[in-house]
């Protein structure tokens, strides 16, 4: 039964992606599908970082739930959700700013729609990465039937919504804007479904996860964009923007992106690492 309901959830995600493919081909032809395919290749390369992180946190989430340590489990869900976002954002931000140069360097020629498609898909991917830990928590409870039915229906709704938008004459990018909205709505509903089986504060979830992620993203954008705007397009600017993103995003993660307990643990880890390297006195 568990595998069956989990399979339904996976199928809904697959139908969502293939449904968009079909509609783009119906209304615009294969060129749009080419642009979408390139966009998802870029997304796949970036999301691998967050997926690797989740491989480590998922077993711990399940273990804490099994031990009935719900508060500790939710703290780990908050932290791992944020970290999955941060790992993706630190690469997504410079890539979005330098996307034209990267695509010119990589492909040379590509459909014009590839740039807006990729940017919108990467934004959607950031939301998907945030929800990974929440998905692990609901799987730990074993109550996945309601989540997969409700969230699956919401995700599949992108197909009729996109059809109506394209039928009304909207541009192809409207499909991906709608996809972001549908993904976010599905996440809102899924959090309340998790609350049905696990006792935690929904408000605290939004503050600790989406609040921190949005704050880090908003504070990081302007300094990185300033470097992008101040330099001529080229490989040197690409490196400068990437390096600035790592430094700036890292600084804001440390100062506002994690709580005091996590910051203290990080400080202790760094201190022990330096001591092992013989760079401090124990």
Structure overview:
The structure is a single chain. The protein has 282 residues and is mainly α. The protein has helices at residues 2-28, 30-66, 70-97, 99-106, 114-130, 132-141, 145-156, 158-167, 173-197, 202-230, 235-257, 260-276. The longest helix has 37 residues, at 30-66. The chain is 86% helix and 0% strand.
What keyword list fits this structure?
282 residues; mainly alpha; flat
The rounded Rg comes to 20 Å
Q: What is the overall number of helices? A: 12
What overall form do the CA principal axes indicate?
flat
- Which sequence of SSEs, written as H and E, runs from N to C? HHHHHHHHHHHH
**Which spans of ≥5 residues are poorly predicted at pLDDT below 50?**
none
Largest sheet: none
Mean of the pLDDT scores? 87
User: Using DSSP, what is the number of strands?
Assistant: 0
Write the layout of secondary structure elements.
Layout: H1 2-28, H2 30-66, H3 70-97, H4 99-106, H5 114-130, H6 132-141, H7 145-156, H8 158-167, H9 173-197, H10 202-230, H11 235-257, H12 260-276
Summarize the structure.
It is built from 12 helices and no strands. The chain is mainly α and 282 residues long. The longest helix has 37 residues, at 30-66.
């Amino acid at each position: 039964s568990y595998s069956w309901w989990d399979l339904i959830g996976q199928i809904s995600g697959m139908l969502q992606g293939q449904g968009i493919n079909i509609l783009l081909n119906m209304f615009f032809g294969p060129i749009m599908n080419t642009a979408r395919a390139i966009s998802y290749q870029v997304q796949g390369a970036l999301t691998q970082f967050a997926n690797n992180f989740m491989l480590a946190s998922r077993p711990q989430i399940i273990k804490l739930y099994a031990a009935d340590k719900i508060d500790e489990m939710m703290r780990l869900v908050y932290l791992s959700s944020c970290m999955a976002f941060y790992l993706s954002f630190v690469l997504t931000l410079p890539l979005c700013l330098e996307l034209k140069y990267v695509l010119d360097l990589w492909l040379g020629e590509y459909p014009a729609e590839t740039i807006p498609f990729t940017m919108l898909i990467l934004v959607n991917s950031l939301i998907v990465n945030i929800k990974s830990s929440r998905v692990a928590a609901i799987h730990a409870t074993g109550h996945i039937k309601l989540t997969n039915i409700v969230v699956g229906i919401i995700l599949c709704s992108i197909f009729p919504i996109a059809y109506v938008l394209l039928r009304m004459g909207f541009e192809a990018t409207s499909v991906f804007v709608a996809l972001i909205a549908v993904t976010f709505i599905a996440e809102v509903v899924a959090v309340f479904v998790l609350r049905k089986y696990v006792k935690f504060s929904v408000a605290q979830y939004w503050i600790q996860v989406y609040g921190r992620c949005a704050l880090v993203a908003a504070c990081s954008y302007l300094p990185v964009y300033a470097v992008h705007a101040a330099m001529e397009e080229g490989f040197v600017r690409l490196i400068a923007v990437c390096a600035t993103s790592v430094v700036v995003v890292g600084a804001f993660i440390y100062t506002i992106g994690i709580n005091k307990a996590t910051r203290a643990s990080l400080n202790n880890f760094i201190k022990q690492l330096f001591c092992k390297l013989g760079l401090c006195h124990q």
